[in-house]
Design brief:
This protein is an alpha+beta fold. 58% of the residues lie in helices and 12% in strands. It is found in: Cell membrane.
């Protein structure tokens, strides 16, 4: 042990340990990739066994250094070059490394094969250990030659290799975990192995590539990958600050936009008379049908809408006035295709209860007290500020009874039924006594009711209305009044990018009918 009393031996030991670790990185990378193909329960065992074989093999090669030196003698002689035993080992090892790295890279990139092999198959434990041993014998040559070239004391070389191997044993698990967490790094590591394999093959033909070039390229590539990982982590941190709902909405919206581009491609191919096979292949790449797109947008934007944009407005409510005559009540029941009616005492804001049409007819025919009967079925009342998502729970508890919407002063603003929510998601379902809110009069020209919900308008015309008053209004009429500053009269034109609105019917209180033309399509 007197060797370690000399400071020069300590310096040699430290330098040799550092070089052994650097030269063993390629071996460590390949071990990490190989053990990843094993089942999780076998990975640590294979890693420890493989590195133990590495340690034994390197120490053994040190003791047979005199034999290794003789590997420089020509064994196969050709006209222009020859192969020594060392050259053949390098050629075999480099070729094997190239083959193995390329096959691993192919398996990594072959998504079609991954799709077929749904059930993951793990590699054989002993085959993996054997591959580690073979590759280690190849990788050990440069480190052994480096050790012999730097230090002429066998004990120092053995200690240096033991320390380097222990370090690799500790670092290998961290490296395996790191590669598993960052799959893209596997591609980078396989590229390094291909580069090292090319270096070994070229060295067997005595075309020497300076090691500094190889390690310089590796360090630069690792630096670039570190920047990519930092960028990826920053993106994940930024995304984590945003609500999951927003992220999912954006992802699905991007799919829908991509779907539209695919449809445009299909139309282009069809117009240019491509073959039926190409047409069909592009046609069926669509992710969503038009109805599905509408419903997806309806679901994702439901929470951001107001109750006013979903409800049936006050002026369209059919209600029963207990002060009316029997004949007037019966006429209203027969003329209106609704099943439920608010029963009121003189005016809509004085709701007694909500009663079914057939029950009202039975009460009237039997001359029962309709006020007493309706008072036993009180209405479900919600504020007009309620979140539409919370509205779903209210409708479930109402058990089929319509819900009355009031403002902060208790004035009835409208009513909501489950059908209104369905229309908010899937589009309009007009009753027998209703006409559609949006009618395309001619190409690019629509006739639209003033009370039409802005969200429905945007969905139907595939536009986004750009104005500061957009979020303050639920209907087209409300938006036009806000933009104009008063109730427009027939003939007035109001421009709201990307549409131009011409008032067709209105009075001093409201806008009934509007002609809409798209002037500029959003991209």
């Amino acid at each position: 042990m007197y060797l370690f009393l000399d400071s020069s031996n300590w310096a040699a030991l430290l330098m040799l340990v550092a070089l052994e670790i650097v030269l063993g990185i390629d071996n460590l990378i390949f071990i990490s990739i190989l053990v990843k193909k094993l089942s999780p329960s076998q990975r640590d065992k294979a890693r420890i066994l493989g590195l133990t074989i590495t340690l034994v093999m390197r120490i053994t090669l040190l003791y047979f250094m005199s034999w290794i030196i003789t590997l420089d003698h020509p064994l196969l002689v050709f006209k222009y070059f020859y192969f020594s035993g060392r050259d053949l080992v390098l050629l075999f090892g480099g070729s094997f490394l190239l083959f193995k790295a390329i096959m691993e890279l192919h398996d990594k990139l072959d998504f079609a094969k991954k799709k077929k092999n749904i059930k993951k198959k793990y590699s054989n434990f002993w085959i993996t250990v054997f591959q580690i041993s073979i590759l280690d014998a190849i990788f050990s040559l440069d480190s052994i030659i480096t050790a012999v070239g730097m230090v002429n004391k066998l004990l120092i070389m053995v200690v240096a290799i033991i320390i380097a191997t222990v370090f690799m044993l500790l670092a290998s698990k961290i490296l395996v975990s790191f590669i598993n967490l960052h799959p893209t790094i596997t591609i980078l590591c396989l590229s390094f192995l291909i580069m090292i394999g090319v270096s070994l093959v070229s060295e067997s033909f005595r075309f020497y590539i300076p090691k500094g070039y190889l390690y310089g390229a590796i360090v630069f590539s690792v630096f670039i990958e570190c920047l990519n990982q930092i960028d990826k982590n920053n993106l994940i941190k930024y995304q984590s600050l945003r609500p999951v709902r927003v992220r999912v909405s954006e992802a699905i919206s991007n799919l829908i936009i991509k779907d539209k581009k695919i449809e445009c491609t299909y139309d282009f191919l069809k117009k240019n008379k491509h073959s039926p096979t190409i047409l069909e292949n592009n046609r069926y790449k669509n992710y969503f049908r038009e109805e599905e797109k509408y419903m997806i947008n309806g679901v994702l934007t439901l929470e951001g809408r107001s109750i006013k944009s979903i409800m049936t407005p006050r002026r369209e409510i059919s209600w029963i006035n207990v002060e009316d005559s029997l004949s007037n009540i019966q006429k209203k029941l027969l003329d209106t295709p609704h099943n439920l009616f608010p029963v009121c005492d003189g005016e809509l804001d004085k709701i007694i209860g909500v009663v079914r049409a057939k029950e009202i007819l039975v009460i009237l025919n039997n001359k029962f007290d309709i006020i007493k009967f309706a008072s036993n079925r009180p209405p479900v009342v919600i504020p007009d500020t309620l979140n539409p998502i919370n509205l779903l729970g209210v409708l479930r508890k109402a058990k089929g009874i319509l819900v009355i919407v009031t403002n902060e002063f208790g004035v009835v603003q409208g009513l909501i039924t489950p059908l209104d929510v369905l229309e908010a998601i899937a589009g309009e379902f007009p009753d027998d006594d209703e006409t559609p809110d949006i009618v395309e009069n001619e190409k690019g020209v629509w006739i639209i009711k003033g009370g039409t919900d802005l969200h429905t308008l945007e969905q139907s015309l595939n536009i986004i209305i750009n104005t500061k008053n957009r979020n303050n209004n639920a209907s087209l009429a409300g938006l036009l009044i806000s933009e104009k500053g008063n109730v427009p009269i027939p003939g007035d034109i109001v421009k709201i990018p990307p549409i131009e609105c011409c008032i067709l019917e209105s009075n001093q209180y409201r806008i009934d009918l509007v002609k809409v033309v798209i002037t500029k399509q959003d991209t």
